[in-house]
Design brief:
Shape: elongated
GO molecular function: electron transfer activity; heme binding; metal ion binding
Distance between the termini: 16 Å
GO biological process, one term: respiratory electron transport chain
Oligomer: single chain
GO cellular component, one term: plasma membrane
Family: Belongs to the cytochrome b561 family.
Cofactor: heme b
Structural class: mainly alpha
Length: about 180
């Protein structure tokens, strides 16, 4: 990263934040594909295990990218939106982004926690490696965490969809620089 990435008042987010955003987009897309693919694969098959373990690994990577992304974002001023948003639009934007970042933290944490409190480890795809569970198996808690993880995952189809529609609205209708700040 160059020092110009951290100059306040520039028209785009820093290189790190832009790349982290788009890598996260791809990873979340792959996480949804991998977990939904398992529904079409035979229980106990190597293909199903690969889909599930890939989902776990992708979730962990999302978490590992999101934490520094949030820390950097808290330290850097956002490039201005031109023309400026009104108060209601600013509130909607801040609320949506807070929800998205909470999702990117809460979902992987719930996924990992559900596996660990189930007494099972988290297998790494295409290897014999796993993150072992050191917790005493608590099947009811694990089941509750899995249901919450699935509920939030389903709800976020809509939040992600609204985020995409908002970006398109800014680009095509409002014709401001919201999307350009992230590319």
């Amino acid at each position: 990263m160059s020092t110009s990435d951290f100059i306040p008042g520039t028209s785009r987010y820093s290189t790190f934040l832009r790349y982290a955003h788009w890598v996260t987009v791809v990873l979340v897309f792959l996480a949804y594909i991998s977990i939904n693919a398992r529904k079409f694969l035979e229980r106990g098959s190597a293909e199903r295990l690969l889909a599930v373990e890939s989902h776990y690994l992708i979730g962990i990577v999302v978490l590992l990218i999101t934490v520094p992304r949030i820390l950097v974002r808290l330290r850097q001023e956002a490039p201005p939106i031109l023309p400026a948003l009104g108060p209601a639009s600013r509130l909607a934007s801040k609320t949506a982004h807070l929800a998205l970042f909470m999702f990117l933290i809460v979902q992987p944490v719930l996924g990992v926690a559900s596996r660990l409190v189930s007494g099972r480890g988290i297998g790494m795809p295409l290897t014999e490696w796993s993150i072992p569970s050191f917790a005493v198996a608590q099947p009811e808690l694990a089941k509750s965490l899995i249901h919450l993880h699935e509920f939030i995952g389903d709800a976020f189809y809509y939040v992600i969809g609204m985020h995409i529609l908002a970006a398109l609205w800014h680009l095509l209708v409002r014709r401001d620089n919201v999307l350009q700040r992230m590319v």
